[in-house]
Automatic annotation (TrEMBL):
Taxonomic classification: Bacteria, Pseudomonadati, Pseudomonadota, Alphaproteobacteria, Sphingomonadales
Similarity annotation: Belongs to the ABC transporter superfamily.
CDD domains: ABC_MJ0796_LolCDE_FtsE
Keyword Lipid biosynthesis: no
Keywords for the protein's UniProt record, in alphabetical order: ATP-binding, Nucleotide-binding, Transport
SUPFAM superfamilies: P-loop containing nucleoside triphosphate hydrolases (SSF52540)
Source domain of life: Bacteria
Protein name as it appears in the record: ABC transporter ATP-binding protein
Cross-referenced PROSITE patterns: ABC_TRANSPORTER_1, ABC_TRANSPORTER_2
Claim: Transport is one of the keywords in the record: yes
Domain ABC transporter: 10-228
One annotated GO molecular function: ATP binding
Length: 228
């Protein structure tokens, strides 16, 4: 599967994506090249509509329709079927979105335990890991709260814990603090980056915010369908 232990976590080669809408075709990605190394945290900047979310969807193997080559941890995703793509996602990738997408009927701790259970880990280990993460994010007193009983910043912290729960090689974050006020966004981003660095994951973080981007290891910019 993987050639060497030092394969990039993500390698995109000439990735394209077009959308046909109302008789008009928009070429959103026109040949994107990118390599993200293990443990590297990369900010993805670009104007609204430039294709940042589309690029994260490509890397997250969530949808088809992409041209070019997408490799995750040395695995060529274009050769994989739906179930195998899901397995790569489960084994390698964690996601954080602008809106938390937590399961509303489950508590904070349950939301962080569930993605771990899917990997077959014993429940007590999953719970220990969830408590450790939620504690580190300052939510040790909120373990049994459901999302509706948490503030926006707290909900987003639970989403961060959920994304990191399985210690993924790669975290994909799409405007992870985009719906938070500036002060809360700064705190949540700092906690997110510290945890990602601590566990040695790589991350690709889409943002509009140059100031937040400057805190990451490298900045890439999406413009006219290619990265600069
Ligand atoms: N399913 C779709 N069908 C048609 N067009 C789409 C679809 N998804 C995205 N697009 C178009 O692709 C372009 C890029 O969208 P995308 O959401 O990737 O941009 P973005 O950089 O993430 O924007 P923002 O920063 O505003 O979230 C937009 O012009 C959008 O209208």
């Amino acid at each position: 599967m993987s050639d060497t232990a030092m394969d990039p976590v993500v390698r995109l080669t000439g990735v394209t994506r077009s959308f046909a809408q109302g008789g008009v075709t928009i070429d959103v990605l026109r040949g994107v090249n990118l390599a993200v190394n293990p443990g590297e945290i990369v900010a993805l900047l670009g104007a609204s509509g430039s294709g940042k979310s589309t690029m994260l969807q490509a890397i997250g193997l969530l949808e088809g329709g992409f041209g070019g080559r997408i490799e995750i941890a040395g695995i060529d995703a274009s050769k994989l079927g739906k179930d195998q793509r899901a397995a790569v996602r489960r084994d390698h990738i964690g996601f954080v979105y602008q809106f938390h997408h937590l399961l509303p009927d489950f508590s904070a701790i349950e939301n962080v335990v569930l993605p771990q259970l899917i990997t077959g880990k014993p429940r007590t280990d999953c719970e220990t890991r969830a408590v450790e993460l939620l504690d580190a994010l300052g939510l040790g007193q909120r373990l049994d709260h459901r999302p509706s009983q948490l503030s926006g910043g707290e909900q987003q912290r639970v989403a961060v814990a959920r994304a990191l729960a399985n210690k993924p090689h790669l975290v994909l974050a799409d405007e992870p603090t985009g719906n938070l006020d500036e002060a809360t966004a700064d705190i949540v981003l700092a906690q997110f980056l510290a945890l990602v660095r601590d566990q040695g994951s790589a991350a690709l973080v889409a943002t509009h915010n140059e100031r937040l981007a400057a805190q990451m290891d490298r900045v890439v910019r999406l413009h006219d369908g290619v990265l600069a």
